Amino acid sequence: MGIRIPTISGDAGTVLCRGCARPIEGQPFRVSVMDIVAVERAPSLAEATPINPGPFQFHSDPACVRAWMRERGYLLCRRSEVRGLMRPVCIPGETSRLGLCDGVHRDEHLFVPA
Q1: What's the pLDDT at 114?
Q2: Assigned domain for 4 exists
Q3: Residue 77: which of 87, 92, 67, 68 has the closest Cα?
Q4: Is the dihedral of CA 24, 28, 29, 33 positive or negative?
Q5: Mean pLDDT throughout 70-92?
Q6: Domain tally for the chain?
Q7: Is residue 7 part of a domain?
Q8: What percent of the chain has pLDDT over 70?
Q9: What is the end-to-end Cα distance of the chain in Å, rounded?
């Protein structure tokens, strides 16, 4: 139908890891962050969204994802693992902070620096 659908491929340029800024050879590990709260309408282009949901691309080493989290001040739930879809959790306190969790466990979160 003549509609161009661009995809991420090797000919589009070098893909850099968001954690260590080195080129990624092969297929990158992608992490997306869910929205904090589902909204009834899409935000306009004039509004800022609370989180850029990604997907963010990394090497397959979880240390690269953890470095990216540390750089942004995110905490990681100790009871979860780094997965392709992470859920943000608002952490109460004096400053607004977010923790990321995979949401697989059923017990209480335990957030630690990534």
Answers
A1: 83
A2: no
A3: 87
A4: positive
A5: 90
A6: 1
A7: no
A8: 77
A9: 46
- For 108, the domain range is 15-37+51-113
How far apart, in whole angstroms, are the C-alpha atoms of residue 17 and residue 33?
16
What number is the average pLDDT over the span 20-37? 86
The encoded tokens of residue 7 equal: 């995809």
Residue found by looking up tokens 């509004």 in the block: 47
pLDDT of res. 14: 78
What are the counts of helices (DSSP H) followed by strands (DSSP E) for the chain?
Answer: 1, 6
| pTM of the complete model | 0.71
Comparing CA positions, the residue from 14, 37, 20 lying closest to residue 87 is 37
Classify residue 10: in a domain, yes or no: no
Residue type, 44: S
CB neighbour class for 53 (10 Å; exposed up to 12, middle 13-18, buried from 19): middle
Instruction: Give the single-character DSSP code of 23.
Output: B
Tokens of 44: 């306009």
Is 8 inside any structural domain? no
Q: Which pairing describes strands 85-91 and 97-101: parallel, antiparallel, or unpaired? A: antiparallel
The C-alpha atoms of residue 17 and residue 37 are separated, in whole angstroms, by 28
